[in-house]
Sequence to fold (274 residues):
Amino acid sequence: MITIATTPVKTYLSKSKIPGFDYVINPYIGCPHKCVYCYAEYMRKFTGHSEEWGDFLDVKECNIPLRPGKLFRTRVMLSSVTDPYNPYEKQYQLTRRLLEQLQRCQARVYILTKSALLLRDIDLFKQMPDCEVAFSFSSTDESFRQLAEPGASPVAERINALKVLHESGIKTAVMGAPLFPGISDWKEIIAQTHSFVSRYGFDGLNMRPAYQRKVLAFIEQHYPQTLPLYSALFLKDEPTDYWKKLGDEIQTYCQNRQIRAEIYFGSSRSYSGN
Ligand code: SF4
Fold:
């Protein structure tokens, strides 16, 4: 059962701290996709919600339109701490209304989602300068998706959405993130998507203390054979070259196949995005 409310905000725009973006828009607070590894759960403490992450959704409300003079040609990301295409977007159409404004502002929009609902707005993407749409995958295994990302679109729907976007001339990307040690098959993510994608980003599982226990409980319950690896990587204070080696392996694999890929782990763990 989800609690839905509207919440007034002064502006939809936040100045971006993410390299490469001028602004970030999070149309909603909360995310019904309810991914077990969601790093955005920290947002809960700013909202006063007592519900679990994924069980509440605040729909932001602001009557001040986005200003073309301010946004012309700026790089705007949707979204960093929610998914702009959660299932309730179908009803509220808030992301769509914001995209209509961004299109009029001629902003350069980057969208990161796990939902095929995004295909609804393909007409707008076609009218935007330098628009890029990215889907994130931790795995192409649908049973993993059902366990770890219960509210997100099935894997096959995301891959099909990439195909439709690519065939419509929209720039597409895949964020292979977060990669779960011993579980995520990154080669399979590439194999199933590379015909429709111009670039990749990869990041590892980032176990912040706030949700480490939840993720480890998930691993213990569903992937117990990998638990020793998770203990070694996340519970021991010993240095590990696991991420460096994995990053190097992905980089070499992609270079050999002329696949454009950025690795956000190993030396720096800087991935941001849903
Ligand atoms: S889709 Fe993104 S923001 Fe939503 S729960 Fe999953 S990781 Fe969090």
